[in-house]
Amino acid sequence: MFNLPKLRYAVLAAGLTLLFWVFGGWVLGGSFGTGDAPTRFGSVQAAGWQQADGKIRILAPQPMGFEEWFRWDVGRLKEIEADYAPDPAGGKRLLDGEIKAIDAEMRRIQETEGYLDPVRKFRVYPPEVTGKLHVLFLAIQNRGRLLAAWSSANLPRFEDLYQLGSFRLYPTTAEKYPSVAQAIETLQEIRLPDRFFNDYRVYLLPYSLGEIGGEGGNGYSFISAEPAATDLIDDHVFVTLTHEFGHHLELRYLGGSYQDNPGLWDEYMAIRKIPGWRNDGEVQTRDWSLSPEETFAEDVRVLFGSKRAVADFYDSAYTNPRSDPGMRQAVEKFILSLGESGPGWPVEDPWAYARRNDAYDLLKSELHHVVGGGGEGRGWPIAASILAAAGLGVAGARFARRRGRTQRGQARRSQAQRGQAL
Predict the structure, then answer these.
(1) 206-246 pLDDT, tens digit each
(2) Where are the alpha helices (DSSP H) in 153-275?
(3) Do residue 323 and residue 184 come from a single domain?
(4) What is the pTM of this model?
(5) Residue 97 near residue 20 (C-beta atoms within 8 A)
(6) Where does a domain end: 128, 147, 166?
(7) C-beta of residue 238 within 8 angstroms of C-beta of residue 178
């Protein structure tokens, strides 16, 4: 007797596998011509605006918005788990093929949607595109849990949509989304060499991170939408993104800890008259204010950012370098010299991908849940949950940290108050 649901899924799995090898292989390994700037996802074919919308056109019977697609996918996984309960091995083969197809789709989106700067080669992904990547990432994670153990206990819930690693996401309105145009302007106006921007990626979130304005790593930043009931300063994107770009430079050239590069950290701390290393704590704590890493990110913002980027107060316990000409010159010289002796650590990818050997790459950046005012504290990295679900270890992995600038300090101020920050 034929099991019709299984037959339907088997046909779909075969089609997805063929799609992955034909289309996925082209995306991952294809070349788009000579003279193009290389990136982590192949080579850049075109500059400027590319196609971008919030529709997902994979697996589902028709294009869907990212939230609608995620709700559909949660229901579909429940059906697959039940249909394949007598034959988990067959279900795992199906999901393995889907993971490969979703992986290829995420790569295609990052290569062909959003904005690619024609000069500095950074990318900006609008909130609708980041939303697609977010739910596709969750779809891979959800399948990984079922691959690890075929059980209804490992089925996802729609509420998982509002979780990004250890970060809580909060729904907001489209009017509160971070501005693509402001993100582009922010990066174009940072007064640093173009080499610092190559393949740097900005993901504008369609959700709020609560009190966190943004999070960044070596090669990328997430910029939060405004909370639904809160108005931030007009320059939220300029201030937050420039600060997070400072963390990108820090993590790429100095490392995510003192042990990564003690010589350069000692040189920087001597210039800034920082008495010793202090790990960054939760936002708006004394440890956070005294952190050399947070101070470095703020130095990048106030010394190299646009007028709008420096329109907020200097958020560090140490002297604002703009108030000391000698210190300002020394800090600027130090930052401009970064990368002259080598390319630094390879830029990292915030998303996890399934590979052809059916394993997951390690996420190389740790998402810390840093909130002000007695929050949950540091959370486990996204990578830990994914690798645990896939049954993989993390021995030998190098995790770099990322920190966020609080939105609590960015509530809309009067023009006079903002002027004092300058």
Answers:
(1) 999 988 899 888 999 999 999 998 877 679 999 999 999 99
(2) 180-189, 236-249, 262-272
(3) yes
(4) 0.77
(5) yes
(6) 147
(7) no
| Pair 409, 295 in one domain | yes
Task: Reply yes or no on whether the pLDDT at 33 is more than 80.
Answer: no
Who's near 116: CB < 8 A, 6+ residues apart? 44, 46, 47, 48, 50, 122, 123
- Do the domain assignments include residue 381? no
Residues 342-396: tens digit of each pLDDT: 778 888 888 854 333 333 333 333 333 232 333 333 333 343 343 334 333 222 2
CB 108 within 8 A of CB 319: no
What is the CA 418 to chain-centroid distance, rounded? Answer: 29
The helix/strand/coil state of 353 is coil
Kindly state the tokens that stand for 392.
Answer: 């993989």
Residues in the chain: 422
Give 65's strand partners.
55
Contact 387, 361 (CB under 8 A): no
Task: Give the C-alpha separation, 220 to 346, whole Å.
Answer: 12
Amino acid identity at 195: R
Co-location of 257 and 134 in the same domain? no
Cα gap 153→389, rounded to integer Å:
12
How many Å apart are CA 296 and CA 403, to the nearest integer? 12
Confidence band, pLDDT 50/70/90 cuts, at residue 419: very low
The predicted structure's pLDDT at residue 387 = 37
E strand map for 113-164? 115-116, 123-125, 163-164
Both structure tokens of 57? 């056109």
